[in-house]
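Q: For a teaching handout, I want to show students what a protein-ligand complex looks like in token form. Below are the inputs, and the small molecule is beta-D-glucopyranose. Please produce the holo structure.
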Amino acid sequence: MSVIFSSDFLIGSTTAAYQVEGNNINSDFWAEEHAEGSPYKDKSGDAIDHYRLYEQDIALMASLGLKAYRFSFEWSRIEPEPGQYSRSAIEHYRGMLETCYKYKITPIVAMHHFSSPKWLMRMGGWASPELPERFSKYCEVVFKELGDLIPYVLTMNEVNLPVMLRETFTAIGFVPPVGIDRESWVAPKWRESAAKLCGTTTENYFTFHMVSDEASIQLLKETHRKARERIKRIQPNTKVGFSMALSDVQSIPGGEEIAKKKWNSYFGQFTDMIEGDDFFGLQNYTREVYGPEGQVKPPEDAELTQMGYEFYPEALGHVLRKVASVLSIPIMITEHGVATDDDEKRVEFIRKSLERVKACLDEGIDVRGYLHWSTFDNFEWNSGYSMKFGLIGVDRTTQERKVKESARVLGEIANVSARSDSFNKL
Ligand code: BGC
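A: Here is the structure, written as tokens, with beta-D-glucopyranose included.
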């Protein structure tokens, strides 16, 4: 046992609807996967059939000792056509929430995790002036039905990822999961076909991952605020926030200015959106180092994860400190993980990172929980099923779940912590 937290520190894991449920045929991502010339390695298909198997999956999480489960609602299931809400989808998610309570797991819900209804693309997607009303109405409908079962909600997941994708990953040759922005997108044919599958043309087609210009970022901020307001009106007790992907941005001599600018575009430009939230969702995977010429490649002897970026468990503590120095609301680590076939590396990553989280708590930083990405090996967007982020493996031919040692380690930390004295009561 490496580290123990207070009993009220939430420890668990995370999934996203599109990556685990399967058959989200009304989603823009389904169109992207099935587009002519699509760069997606696999089709999501049945995914890991979590839509059907959620009860046994949540029971398994509980049996391991995990105490929290963050998952997302699929907007395109709940509202398959504009203004038409699916009773059966809402009841499905009620079932998931109630199952969490049955197994004494705290649910944390994301209303949006990258995928949007195809119909939204016909209206101009995430650049449409209708977006704030459409999205907040969807939140309102859900909260009227299920709000009393949702203690924590993220309106959206990783609002800054599109900016990061555009600024960083393209520079190092990493193929981003979806389009970046209208002008710079490098596969117009592919996008044309995806737009067609959504029933529109590229003029209207604007997915969440394209929100990286000033106008769409402002619209996104407005959408979050409006959704928060409606959620709070219905459920004042639900804690509302959103999450951001935050690399540990570092510099070597000569790169200080560039690193400062990067941090501002990844984080600084979004801080006004956090004002009025109840908590902040921090998500971290690695670091980015900048020198006078821009981003520096990891050293020759650096260990890389399957995703191609550096294995660097020190990052989480660094980012926590940076974020806490400017925020006055509690932080929840809503994602943190590593893609590897070697589960011992995952165990090392978890242990080392949690020791650093504990050090941050000891310094007085207000961190309320740690949610590992991901509960299961799942559909990693354009990389398909090749990336192994899971605490639990899945044989997709039989849908059999295979618990890895890392799941037992995190479950044990969660279990022992839950029974500890609340030496850090908040
Ligand atoms: C996303 C997940 C993704 C994970 C690993 C995060 O950016 O929220 O959907 O699977 O990183 O790449």
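A: Two things your students might notice: The chain has a mean pLDDT of 94. The first helix runs from residue 17 to 20.
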